[in-house]
Amino acid sequence: MVEKKHVAVVGQHSANNSKVASCLKSNGLEAESFDIAVDPSTLVDFDLVILDVSLMPDGGSSLFREIRARNDAVAVFFIDEESNGRGFEFASDLGVDAYLLWPLDLDDLVFRAKAILRCVTFVQTGGAKAGRYVRMGDLALDMQGDVVLVAGRRVELTPNELRILKALAARCGEVLSGDELIASIWGEEYMGTSISIPTYIRRIREKIESDPSNPQILTTVRGRGYCLTDVDFSHESFGAQ
């Protein structure tokens, strides 16, 4: 039996929370609803947290950061009111996994939630590859955590940068286009949006390559996409300096 994925629905309207949670449950997901006053530590063991940020003065950014500070592997989904004027760029810059507006299309909600959870499972298991730890030359990556080392020293990637790097590592030897990366991480519905994979790739290279202008680890195959070279999976851990 496939284990159900756990979803927390958080917001200031209990009726909306219950409606969203009930919809997810009826589509095979295990979901619980919480008031906005919930302790963030309660949310960190969920695979996905759906935040109704429409009445939050800061657009949910402080609660989002508290959740990610405790466990940055948690996927986070924002639901907002268009009248707030924040938009997808606001959520994307934070590192949020998906952004929807009221009124919700419940079928679309379920589709997006399942797409996010597929991504969570994909990253947690390292795709089809065996071994939790990945080494690519001077780069070392924990597929189930957030540790990235370059020449033994830890570097900090944003949540979206880390997801892209893990998606490429899990399919080592394959060339993935920008659209394929977006589909595997955020879902096919985000293809053609303002997500800029080249910008993320450039930022990742600035952090992991000794010469970002001449990348040796995260390479580009012109006209096709991106790939990681010389990837080695193992179960042997590593430590940061």
Automatic annotation (TrEMBL):
<feature type="modified residue" description="4-aspartylphosphate">
    <location>
        <position position="52"/>
    </location>
</feature>
<keyword id="KW-0597">Phosphoprotein</keyword>
<protein>
    <recommendedName>
        <fullName>DNA-binding response regulator</fullName>
    </recommendedName>
</protein>
<dbReference type="Pfam" id="PF00486">
    <property type="entry name" value="Trans_reg_C"/>
</dbReference>
<dbReference type="GO" id="GO:0006355">
    <property type="term" value="P:regulation of DNA-templated transcription"/>
</dbReference>
<keyword id="KW-0902">Two-component regulatory system</keyword>
<keyword id="KW-0805">Transcription regulation</keyword>
<feature type="domain" description="Response regulatory">
    <location>
        <begin position="6"/>
        <end position="117"/>
    </location>
</feature>
<dbReference type="GO" id="GO:0032993">
    <property type="term" value="C:protein-DNA complex"/>
</dbReference>
<feature type="domain" description="OmpR/PhoB-type">
    <location>
        <begin position="131"/>
        <end position="230"/>
    </location>
</feature>
<dbReference type="InterPro" id="IPR039420">
    <property type="entry name" value="WalR-like"/>
</dbReference>
<feature type="DNA-binding region" description="OmpR/PhoB-type">
    <location>
        <begin position="131"/>
        <end position="230"/>
    </location>
</feature>
<dbReference type="InterPro" id="IPR001789">
    <property type="entry name" value="Sig_transdc_resp-reg_receiver"/>
</dbReference>
<dbReference type="InterPro" id="IPR036388">
    <property type="entry name" value="WH-like_DNA-bd_sf"/>
</dbReference>
<dbReference type="GO" id="GO:0000976">
    <property type="term" value="F:transcription cis-regulatory region binding"/>
</dbReference>
<keyword id="KW-0238">DNA-binding</keyword>
<dbReference type="InterPro" id="IPR001867">
    <property type="entry name" value="OmpR/PhoB-type_DNA-bd"/>
</dbReference>
<dbReference type="InterPro" id="IPR011006">
    <property type="entry name" value="CheY-like_superfamily"/>
</dbReference>
<dbReference type="InterPro" id="IPR016032">
    <property type="entry name" value="Sig_transdc_resp-reg_C-effctor"/>
</dbReference>
<dbReference type="GO" id="GO:0000156">
    <property type="term" value="F:phosphorelay response regulator activity"/>
</dbReference>
<dbReference type="GO" id="GO:0005829">
    <property type="term" value="C:cytosol"/>
</dbReference>
<keyword id="KW-0804">Transcription</keyword>
